[in-house]
Amino acid sequence: MDKDLVRSAVDSFVGSLNLAGKPGVSMALAQGGKVITKACGGMLHPEHGGAITDQTPFRIGSTSKQFTAAAALLLERDGLLDLDASIRDQIPELPKLLSKVRLRHMLSCTSGMHDELDMWLFANGLSFMPQREGFAQAFARDTFNFPAGSHFCYNNTGFALASLAMERATGLGFDDILREYLFGPAGLRATSLVARDDDLPAHCARTALPSPTGFTLARFPAEITGEGGLISTPSDLLRWNRWLQNIDQRQIYARMSSATPLKGGGSSAYGLGLIKASFRGVTRVHHPGGVIGGSAQLVSYPDADCTIAVASNNGAIAAPDLADRLAEQLGILPPAPLPAESGPTGQFYDDAMGRGFSLNPGELDLHVQRLPLYKQGDATVAADSAGMGRLAFECDGQEVWLHEHGQTRRLDPIAGDAAMELPASPFCYRNTRLSFEGRQLLVEGGSGSVRYDLRPMGQDTYAAVPTLPVPLLATVKAESEGLRVSTLRNWNMRCDGAC
User: Fold this and answer.
1) If one looks up domain 61-112+147-329 in CATH, what number appears?
2) Interatomic CA distance for residues 328 and 9, integer angstroms
3) Please, which contacts does 279-286 make with residues 24 or more away whose CB atoms are closer than 8 Å?
4) Tell me: the pLDDT tens digits for 246-300?
5) In the chain, domain spans
6) Crossing angle of helices 157-170/116-124, nearest 10°?
7) Is 312 in contact with 24 (CB distance < 8 Å)?
8) What's the pLDDT at 2?
9) What CA–CA distance (Å, rounded) separates 7 from 17?
10) Which is nearest to 162 in space by CA: 64, 249, 259, 255?
11) What is the pLDDT of residue 419?
């Protein structure tokens, strides 16, 4: 790629976003390991203004996970940690039912553990969760999503507990581990761990959500460490990527970006804090990140020897989408294909995970987000999501099959068009109370509550869409013995009437 043309294209791309008077973005691009251009625009703070510069750090959310995984691998290299030992060796407070969970499972999102951050958001909304509360809930669990290593399910709690395990193995605080093993050696001067939004430095971009009058300040409602607690700049992320790819004769990077075999068959493209997969026929290695009102993406294209880093503090602008659009404009990615005109349609239920899917012609309707469905073979359509990976739906006669993370499951058609009468009595799941009020579900978790609009998918199944800006969707299924509720990260929560 011609460097001058790239610089001009990136500047023009950021200019086309019309960020004047709005929270904004910052991006940088490297080729051959060298930063060749940076661009930024928009406001630092939705209430106090200030301009974003190329030195402005942003919350990068789950893009932090690759740092956590790299730190664990370096500690293993130095003989301080064993990724294949039971996590209870370091954290004996965890229940015995998790004895077969290894640190490797936690770093590859195959532990089967419940996601306590997701559960908190589901039940308490935007009320603040101290990290000790998440740990306490994990220590008290008596169920899991699936046996360790058998499936993939994106999980924040595993990375939070991995941070704790590293602290206990070394006697150092997690921030000290990051500085000693990663930030210092990689020369990252603008990257740091900030567990609470209240502690963000004044020069950090503050996340924002659209409002009727413009934008309002957003606040992440939890204390976060290894699962998503870093702030950084796009330039520092490119510096990090170059360093990570070259340490230990590239062995660390190779391990992080290798697919994870699953005991239930198949493999997940999610390695150890990195995802390596084909997207529009082009290989990429990446990990997106999201917080309330902000997002990030760090993505490498090995064949083009190019890496793009994007950060946004504007809740209406998704950094992973910007990175894809920029790669397309630069000719790294081909244009997105047109949505499929045919394929399986209707309402379907994944009994193993408790998830509902609404398939429309050319569209997967997740009720909080719509994804285009593209043709993939004669009888298969597929959708790509930065957070979920690829979901492919195959029609085989009268049956519809879901292909996900190398595994295949038959989907059940959801019967009936009219929704059933909702029960008046409340249901409970552990310390969470669920009750129906008209066509809404009220979920109360003790420290807060969330109302969900219920969208019928059939006679007994609903998509529950939060009325608060919390990043989740639940599927609610009414059964004879109570309710079965699933989010993307907590499967088949059985709720009974014993409140």
Assistant:
1) 3.40.710.10
2) 11
3) 279/324, 279/333, 279/384, 280/333, 280/334, 280/336, 280/337, 281/334, 282/332, 282/333, 282/334, 285/257
4) 998 899 999 999 999 999 789 999 999 999 999 999 999 999 999 999 999 999 9
5) 61-112+147-329, 346-413
6) 130
7) yes
8) 86
9) 16
10) 64
11) 64
291 within 8 A of 220, measured Cβ to Cβ: yes
Please choose, from the candidates 48, 49, 6, 45, the residue with its C-alpha nearest in 3D space to the C-alpha of residue 27.
Answer: 6
From residue 98, alpha-carbon distances to 107, 133, 337 in Å are 15, 19, 43
Q: What is the C-alpha to C-alpha distance for residues 185 and 246, in angstroms, rounded to an integer?
A: 12
Give how far the C-alpha of residue 355 lies from the chain's centroid of Cα atoms, to the nearest Å.
17
Q: Residues near 53 by Cβ (< 8 Å), separated by ≥ 6?
A: 26, 40
Rounded alpha-carbon distances, angstroms, from residue 68 to 145, 158, 167, 492: 23, 11, 12, 29
Q: For 91-123, b where at least 16 C-beta lie within 10 A, e where not — what string?
A: beebeeebeebbbbbbbbbbbbbbbbbbbbbbb
Q: What is the pTM for the complete model shown?
A: 0.96
Q: Are 5 and 197 in contact (CB under 8 A)?
A: no
> What are the structure tokens assigned to 210, written together?
């659209």
- Provide the 3-class DSSP secondary structure of residue 28: strand
Q: At a CB cut-off of 8 Å and minimum separation 6, what does 373 contact?
A: 339, 340, 343, 359, 362, 363, 364, 381, 382, 383, 393
> Is 47:21 a contact under the CB 8 Å cutoff?
no
- Burial state string for 132-151 with b = 16 or more CB within 10 A and e = fewer than 16: ebbbebbeebeebbbebbeb
Predicted pLDDT of residue 378 = 83
Structure tokens of 230?
Answer: 């870093």
CA distance 324 to 385: 12
Backbone torsions φ then ψ of 164, nearest 5 degrees: -65, -40
Cβ count within 10 A of residue 472: 20
Separation CA 308–CA 347 (nearest Å) = 37
Q: How far is CA 12 from CA 17, 52, 263, 329, 349, in A?
A: 9, 17, 47, 11, 44
**Pair of tokens at residue 434:** 């669920």
One-letter amino acid for residue 409 of the chain: R
The series of mean pLDDT values per 10 residues for the chain, 499 residues long, is 90 96 98 96 97 98 99 98 97 96 98 97 95 93 96 97 98 98 98 98 98 96 97 99 94 98 93 97 98 98 98 98 97 95 94 95 92 92 85 94 94 80 88 94 96 93 94 91 94 88
